[in-house]
Amino acid sequence: MDELSSLEQHRQELRRGTVVLACLAQLREPGYGYGLLETLEGAGFDVEANTLYPLLRRLEKQGLLTSEWNTEESRPRKFYRTTADGEAALAALRIEWRALSSAIDALGA
């Protein structure tokens, strides 16, 4: 049981780093938190709301996302969108992701 728990912890750590990449890519088109959660889950990223929302705020504070409130619907929602700096970060992170993947493959994993 401990082995499974340990493996799950490692899987979560691996995914945590890729969620930034996924958010920046997905938010090229404006999206709100809950919709993003559903999209990520549908793509195989199991992210909890208490992980995603602080991440979105951090990425916004870093200038990689921008946000604005949409109050036209019955329930106001904060929509996020990838900025030009976010696009540049996404491109750099994708290059890094591919390099790491190639390095792992070269190790025979």
Q: What features would you describe in this structure?
A:
The chain is of the alpha+beta class. The chain has one domain (2-106): Orthogonal Bundle (Arc Repressor Mutant, subunit A). It has helices at 2-26, 33-42, 49-61, 84-106, and strands at residues 31-32, 65-70, 77-82. A 3-stranded antiparallel beta sheet has the order 1-3-2. The model has no long low-confidence stretch (mean pLDDT 91).
What's the short story on this structure?
The protein contains four helices and three strands, in the order αβααββα. It has helices spanning 2-26, 33-42, 49-61, 84-106, and strands at 31-32, 65-70, 77-82.
The name CATH uses for the topology is Arc Repressor Mutant, subunit A
Query: DSSP strand (E) fraction?
Result: 5-15%
Low-confidence stretches: none
Q: What order do the strands of the largest sheet run in, or round the barrel if closed?
A: 1-3-2
Average pLDDT works out at 91
- CATH level 4 superfamily: Winged helix-like DNA-binding domain superfamily/Winged helix DNA-binding domain
Rg over alpha carbons = 16 Å
> Counting H and I runs of at least 4 residues, what is the number of helices?
4
Order of helices and strands: HEHHEEH
At the first level of CATH, the class is: Mainly Alpha
Distance between the termini: 24 Å
Task: Return the structural class.
Answer: alpha+beta
Q: Helix content range of the residues, please?
A: 55-70%
CATH architecture: Orthogonal Bundle
Number of domains: 1
* Number of DSSP strand runs: 3
Q: What is the assembly state of the chains in this entry? A: single chain
Shape designation: globular
Largest sheet: 3 strands, antiparallel
